[in-house]
Structure formats: structure tokens, C-alpha cells
Amino acid sequence: MSGATPAEYFPLQTGDQWIYASSQRGQDSQLVEITRAEDFGGNQYFLYSGFGTQEWLRFNDQGALVAYDPAAKTERVVISPEGVFTPFLSPCNQTGHIVSTTADYKGPLGVYQGNIIEVTYDPGTCADAGLLRDLYLPYVGLVQRTVQTIAGPRTYDAVYIRVGGVLVATAPETSFTLALDNSSYDPDVTMRARLALRHTNADPLVLTFSTGQEFDVVLRNERGEPVYTWSIGKMFTQMVHQIQVNGEQNWEVLIPLAGLPPGRYTAKAFLSNEWKRSYVSIVGFRIVGAEPAQ
Fold it and tell me: Is-contact 134 145, C-beta < 8 A?
């Protein structure tokens, strides 16, 4: 197949992440990520973790995706420029080949027509294990994998993809997250926190609040004692109101850390809707300095 190179369908940057959900109810999802980079023998490799394996990967000068073995100090080709695939650490001795660069895909991430790369694998030496088929979206990565199990074929579909620091695609979801502007702070500074309610399902999410307060943030020290609550001392209108979320709703909070001693803390954010604490997120952080003796 012409027009497709390994680099097009296998993104390789630190921080890239893919999450896959199984088609079989009750089965665990699969997290795949590029966690860090390191130099070996003058070449930079990226650590790939996922689907039960871990590999140091790079693209060589010939355009092949290769894996490096630090113990043996050798490389082996994982995906050749010709579109021949050798699965990571496969006990089944399989080989895969690109059979189409114009396949279609329909799954949790949406519908893609005519631009999917389809790879199928030979049976190899395993009767009830190994890969059957992979589908790749150029510059996004693997969007579907079908494997053989003793219970029959099992398919994993991508439900979340982040490439190059950018959220590329996500399946419809409802989530609530707290993000801090740092993981450690000097004493007496101000923390900037962002609360994000994300809802991407077809029907909008409607939340009802009994007052003008829509959220709160509580800081606790390492003994679990509350040391700061954002809402204390604030006045809120005593009026019922609603918000409708179809996409993402954000709140930004400035939290003074003055007077808090060095140590480890948690920030807990939650929405104040009628179903209190239905949306909760907790993040840890430190205030630097000489920490108190244990």
C-alpha cells in the first residue's frame, strides 16, 4: 500500500495517551501511554506501555518503527516502511500486514470513512490468543484492536486519545475534574485552581442549585484536617437556579495559601447541586520548605 508510513499512524511523543474499552461487558479497559524519553547509544527512545507490554521505541532513518532492548543493546523492527507489523513481545510469533488504507470505522469516537488503515495478522503459533486486526487513524493512532481469546474474539475501541499534548478525541462522557496550576507552592502565594465539568452526550446535562453557590473547594492537611474552605465568609443569593452543560463548563478559583505551613495537602472540589457531592475531584499538592517532623 502506498502513501502510508509508520510515523503517520503511530504517534510517538511523551505524554501521548490512549484509553480503550472492551466490547465485552465487565472487562477492564486498556491504558496505553508514552510515559518518558531516554537516550540509548546516541538515539532517543520513547517508553511505550500498554496492552501488557512495555517497549522503548523510535523511528530509524529508514522510517521503520523499531524497539530497543537495553539489556542486549539491540534493535528490532516493529513496523517496517513496507507495512509489515511484528507485535510487541508476541508469544505467538505473528506477522501483520496492511490490507487497506481506505477502510471505514464506526465506534465510540465517531465515524471515519475512507481514511482508516487496516492491519490483519496471521494466526501464528497460538490457537486461542494473539492479534486478529488493528485499525489506525493517521496521526491519531490505534482506534480499534481485535484480539483472539479462549472465549472468542474481543474488541477494544478507543474512548480517549491525547496526542502531542492535545485532546484529539473522546467518547461521549460526563466527568468532573480539578486542575491546579502547580504541584508545589512557595509559602504565602496564591493557588489558581480550575474546576471543569465535561458533558459530551447528546442530551444536555441540567443541574439545579438551591442557592447562588455552584461549587466549593476544601483544603486539608496530611492529617485530614480542613485548613481552608473557599465558601466560608462568602455571601450567596438565596435563589434556585439551573445551569445546562453541553460541552464543558469551567470555574476558576484563586486560593490564598498564606499562613499554611510547609507540608502535604489535598484540594477537594465539588459541585453544590441538589445531589450534593455527585461531582467530586481531589488533587494533592505541597507547600515547600522544611516540613514538620513526624
Answer: yes
- Reduced to 3 states (helix: H, G, I; strand: E, B; else coil), residue 268 is strand
Q: How far apart are CA 81 and CA 65, in angstroms?
A: 8
Do residues 264 and 250 make contact, with C-beta atoms less than 8 angstroms apart?
A: no
% the chain with pLDDT above 70: 95
C-alpha cell at 288: 515547600
Helix (H, G, I), strand (E, B) or coil at 48: strand
Instruction: Report which of 142, 32, 34, 130 is spatially closest to residue 87, judged by C-alpha positions.
Output: 130
Of 22, 61, 17, 54, the C-alpha closest to 38 is: 54
Residue 191: closest CA among 179, 209, 202, 201: 179
d(CA 78, CA 76): 6
Q: SS3 of 115, please? A: strand
Q: Which of 56, 77, 69, 68 is nearest to 6 (CA)?
A: 77
DSSP state of 29: P
CA-CA distance, 194 to 267, in Å (whole number)? 11
CA distance linking residue 166 with residue 16, whole number of Å: 9
Strands 184-185 and 280-287: parallel
Q: In what order do the strands lie in the sheet with 174-180?
A: 174-180, 190-199, 247-256
Q: Whole-angstrom Cα distance, residue 132 to residue 111? A: 21
Average pLDDT over residues 54-63: 95
Going by C-alpha positions, the residue among 85, 90, 248 that lies closest to residue 175 is: 248
Q: How many other C-beta atoms are found inside a 10 Å radius of the C-beta of residue 193?
A: 20
pLDDT at 52 over 80: yes
Return the pLDDT at 72: 94
Integer Cα distance of 143 and 107 in angstroms? 9
Q: Which three cell numbers stand for residue 48?
A: 511505550
Please say if the pLDDT value at position 26 is more than 60.
Answer: no
Per-residue pLDDT tens for 139-173?
999 999 999 988 889 999 999 999 987 777 777 77
